[in-house]
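Sanity check record (used in CI):
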Amino acid sequence: MTGTGTRTKTWKAEISIVESGSEVRAEARLRGEDGGQIVGEGTARCNPADENVPAIGDELSVARALSDLSHQLLNRAAHDIEVHTARPVERLHA
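Expected output for DUF1876 domain-containing protein:
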């Protein structure tokens, strides 16, 4: 995070949504330039008493997948800080 020059990096995110009956599952993949990736998952289910509106299930499952991805990325960053500083890190929050 320090340095004198400016450098632009590109990470790619891909979200897949699979609908099966009243359940929607989303998978959010984040790929860095180094080839590594993190995958977040999210699920939404329609309550049988509610009207089935697929767009809402998509939104909920994707939001949950992105939240999962975010938490994994924060945990990875905290771990990397601990490795590089040899000191424990108070867990980071989204």
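The domain at 12-85 is CATH 3.30.160.240 (Double Stranded RNA Binding Domain). If this sentence no longer matches the regenerated tokens, the check is flagged for review.
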